[in-house]
Design brief:
Layout: H1 7-16, E1 42-44, E2 48-52, E3 61-64, E4 71-73
Antiparallel strand pairs: 1-4, 2-3
């Protein structure tokens, strides 16, 4: 991410590269959603969700994995 960039700018740059899948890790609940519509993943155990994201001042949220058993799975 670029300092001062918004999540919308970041997302548009990722999508411009035409990835097959793109997971934002910003869901407050439910599955790990593939914003490209290919295939959703899932959150294993209980990672902390709705934490502040990487881009300062951006209202978009993130998921925090504690390094002690938290994980996510995305399809191959």
């Amino acid at each position: 991410a670029v300092n001062g960039a918004s999540s919308a700018v970041y997302s548009s740059r990722v999508v411009a590269d035409d990835p097959v899948s793109y997971w934002r890790f910003d869901e407050g609940e439910g599955p790990l959603v593939d914003s490209r519509g290919f295939m959703n993943g899932f959150y294993g155990t209980s990672p902390q969700r709705d934490v502040p994201g990487l881009i300062a001042g951006d209202p978009d949220t993130a998921t925090e994995l504690d390094g002690n058993g938290d994980y996510v799975e995305v399809p191959a």
